[in-house]
Design a protein that fits this description.
The protein has 16 helices and 18 strands. By secondary structure, it is of the alpha/beta class.
């Protein structure tokens, strides 16, 4: 008995998830397949592992895995087979036959035609047959996802031509919403210059999602700038009988062994102009750090490289030692195509990167060379838009005085998928590595982490130094090498005891780590005399007296 698992990529759109689930239920209701489940490889629930697990629990040891994708790009050629390989690791006796992507196919062309005509007719004429003149005066912009795989992009162009043939539209032009050209505005401008006065933008997408929403937004923006144009946006294909029919057709092909992968124009098999560097490169399927069974397992279906859209992971590398990065952070680093690295990130990890990984130095050296934050943001976005997996490797935790959220905001604004991997912050780790607990029962019930980058009295400082002086717990100062004397003086001025113990910790966790003890009223002079330099952390409060390793110079 062979079950069917319908595999989607996943989306952050609740409407898209609902449409996917409705399609799975529609196929199930048909009764042509004995048992059907659906799942996603990322972003959405249910995950693929739950769908496969449910089928296996019901006795299935052989499956058809059908990729619910329109073109033969990275998801269908690499990511879904890799995810199924992980399922075979979980279920050792599991076998599966792999279906081919859905399009191009006449069933989808007919569905697109219906969506275009519905947009053209408008609410007042919905369901009415259009006159030939309606189509003859209408240009269509068919907008696909876009990919770093030229063969996948060519399929969208093929669909555009097939959609034009015999249907009476003035013309159909292909375009893309990400990773490929022409863009939505570029296609609309081309049609305007060709004399179009009425344009229907047709998203070549199965379900609702972030990218279809972006198509709507960009079309509306173009229309607002050109009030002489009638620009309308059609619905996505969505859950419908035609899509269910095609799923069942692809299921039957897989069972019969009729799998026709297009390798004649594969940039990883033959030399394609502009893609010479890809010939013969190995497949690296998309990394899924939430999957506990590991990553990058080979498969026998197609030898391709790269996920078909890029992403950024903002990763906290920890306080300095190479082995204090998180397991997830290390996995993402191992899978990266580009690493944008800070000066204080664990530099030893760079030696373990693959030879083809691009390393971008984003150092901000105190009183020295510095890469502007805007330039860093632009680099992250540019590499991700080029289809690369980017790791922004930062020291400590990216959200503790690391400008990590600025980078997340930049990626989000650009529509680039971004995730954050917390790191071990030096605010907690440096004292611990020096033998000082930042909290201790009966000694300190609070800890305050403060940036000392700006001294007390600076007009841009957001720190209430007077209030800080009145606290009784632990204070940890980061980036305070140049300001520690002024900070100590202000804390004493506002009530902190001059004899409060302080420990300066330099190069925490590294072979040349050193710790310098002092009183609060002495720490400025001690730090200057001993030449304390960044990276250094100052911890002050009664917990300093609890040090177990003993401060050393």
């Amino acid at each position: 008995m062979t079950g069917l698992v319908i595999v989607g990529h996943g989306t952050r759109s609740a409407a898209g998830v609902e449409q996917f689930a409705a399609l799975v239920e529609r196929v199930r209701r048909r009764g042509d397949v004995a048992d059907v489940e659906g799942g996603f490889i990322e972003l959405s629930r249910p995950p693929l592992t739950d769908a496969v697990g449910a089928l296996v629990a019901r006795g299935h040891r052989a499956l058809v895995a059908l990729p619910l994708v329109l073109t033969g790009a990275g998801h269908g050629k690499g990511d879904i087979p890799a995810a199924m390989a992980r399922e075979q690791q979980r279920h050792r006796r599991l076998t599966y036959r792999y279906g081919r992507p859905l399009g191009p196919h006449p069933l989808l062309h007919d569905a697109l035609e219906q969506r275009i005509d519905a947009a053209l007719a408008g609410a007042d004429r919905a369901g009415m047959k259009l006159a030939d003149a309606d189509r003859a005066g209408t240009w269509v912009a068919l907008i696909g996802r876009g990919s770093t795989d030229p063969d996948a992009n060519a399929e969208v162009a093929k669909v555009a031509r097939l959609l034009w043939e015999g249907r009476g539209y003035a013309g159909v032009e292909p375009g893309f919403i990400s990773l490929a050209q022409p863009s939505v505005p570029a296609v609309l401008e081309r049609l305007r210059r060709l004399g179009a006065r009425r344009i229907v933008v047709a998203p070549y997408f199965l379900f609702a999602g972030v990218l279809p929403d972006r198509i709507v937004a960009q079309s509306a923006e173009f229309a607002a700038a050109h009030p002489d144009l009638d620009v309308r946006v059609a619905e996505v294909i969505g859950d419908c009988d035609a899509l269910a029919d095609l799923v069942l057709e692809r299921h039957a092909e897989a069972l019969g062994g009729d799998i026709r992968m297009n390798c004649d124009t594969c940039a990883y098999r033959v030399l394609m102009p502009g893609f010479a560097d890809k010939v013969g490169r190995p497949q690296r399927p998309h990394d899924h750090p939430d999957d506990p069974v590991g990553h990058h397992h080979g498969h026998d279906h197609h030898d391709h490289d790269h996920h078909d859209h890029g992403s950024v992971a903002v990763v906290g590398g920890g306080p300095g030692p190479d082995d204090l990065i998180t397991v997830r952070g290390r996995a993402l680093l191992d899978a990266a195509d580009v690493v944008v690295v800070d000066r204080l990130a664990p530099q030893g990890l760079l030696a373990g990167l693959r030879p083809d990984v691009l390393v971008v130095d984003a150092a901000k050296v105190p009183r020295g060379p510095s890469m502007a934050q805007q330039a860093i943001n632009e680099a992250l976005v540019a590499h991700a838009r080029a289809g690369r997996r980017v790791v922004r490797l930062k020291g400590g935790d990216p959200y503790v005085f690391g400008r990590g959220h600025e980078e997340v905001q930049a990626c989000t604004a650009a529509g680039v998928p971004v995730t954050v991997v917390p790191g071990v912050s030096s605010a907690i780790a440096a004292p611990a590595l020096a033998g000082v607990p930042v909290t201790h029962r009966g000694v300190a019930h609070d800890v305050t982490v403060v940036s000392g980058h700006l001294p007390p009295g600076h007009p841009d400082s957001l720190v209430d130094w007077a209030a800080l002086a009145r606290t009784r717990g632990t204070v940890v100062l980061l980036m305070a090498v140049d300001t520690i004397a002024k900070i100590a003086a202000v804390l004493i001025e506002h009530g902190r005891a001059p004899q409060t113990p302080v420990l300066a910790i330099q190069d925490a966790g590294l072979p040349d780590q050193r710790s310098l003890p002092a009183r609060l009223d002495e720490i400025g002079a001690v730090a200057a005399r001993e030449g304390v330099g960044p990276p250094a952390v100052f911890v002050l409060g009664p917990v300093v007296a609890l040090t177990t390793t003993g401060p050393t110079v």
